[in-house]
Amino acid sequence: MLSSIRCYLLPVFKLYLLGLKVLLVQLFGRSFRLPVMPRQDGKVAIVTGGVRGIGYEVVRHMVKLGAHVFIGTVPNITDSTMALTNVCVCVCACIAVEFRKLDLASLQSVRQFVQSFKERDLPLNILVNNAGVMLVPEGRTEDGFEQHLGVNYLGHCLLTWLLLDRLKDSGKCGHFSRVVSVSSSAHRLMFLLSYSLFSQWYSAHAAYCQSKLALLLFSSHLHQELQRGGFPVSSFAVDPGMVDTALYQYLWTPLRLAQSTIARFLFKTPAEGAATVLYAALSPALEGECEGGYWANGCREMTTPVTFDPELQLSLWETSLRLVGLQ
Known about the structure:
Blueprint: H1 2-28, E1 44-48, H2 53-64, E2 68-73, H3 77-91, E3 97-101, H4 107-118, E4 126-129, H5 147-170, E5 177-182, H6 204-229, E6 233-239, H7 253-266, H8 270-282, E7 293-296, E8 299-300, H9 310-323
Parallel strand pairs: 1-2, 1-4, 2-3, 4-5, 5-6, 6-7
Antiparallel strand pairs: 7-8
Helix pairs in contact: 1-6, 2-3, 2-8, 4-5, 5-6, 6-9
């Protein structure tokens, strides 16, 4: 009984308590407004999950500024067509948006996506690791990983690694390439990492929090590695806040009904949630080898002490490379 409370109910309570705190901050705080960003003509970006929600707003804004954007997404003709149509209507110009199949639950799909992109022989200036799942039922990816860890973290980890050479080649002094990974304040609830999340008392809530902590640790260590190597690439992690998107579809039914009611009043819109992601990806103010870090509501923020643990960062880095088949 005590084991079930600790492993299942405690993460649920802590995550919803954190959610309440975030909503209060959003209610009484001032939402970050994206300043005018410079033109992005000639730049190429990849955005995962760019057909809905935050990802769609990121794509829409980048295209409006002249960027050539590749959207990596699981094939869905309806979503892709609607996204392209909406972008065309908003921009009212000849645009460059391309859709490529990318299933982050499959490492083979990630490799095929990268191969397809590299065959175009284009530069890569911006990579936005945006796609994700939350509170999905217990299950495994094609490669046997717990779904949150596989989709939110390991898929993006492999994607970033395979594209790193193109990002390095495309960056230059004064115009660094950028990797922006969408994390969450939920990372604050985890203090340990486990690569085997299946047990008698599986918790989707704990699994989601862990995947966001792993993504933050990876982003931080990646930035340090790039700095040490003198490469013109910066790595940022971003918390978009609580945003009114389809991410909450797996909430317990009564909570989902409540969420759909209060979202219009307390949640950020997808455009507001995308603001800090775009700021990290495009702002000249963040240019240079000393940037990076964890960003929320337009500001760089401190994270929990565990995210600064060099041994944990290195352990995750090495384990991740082994899990995705790069070592």
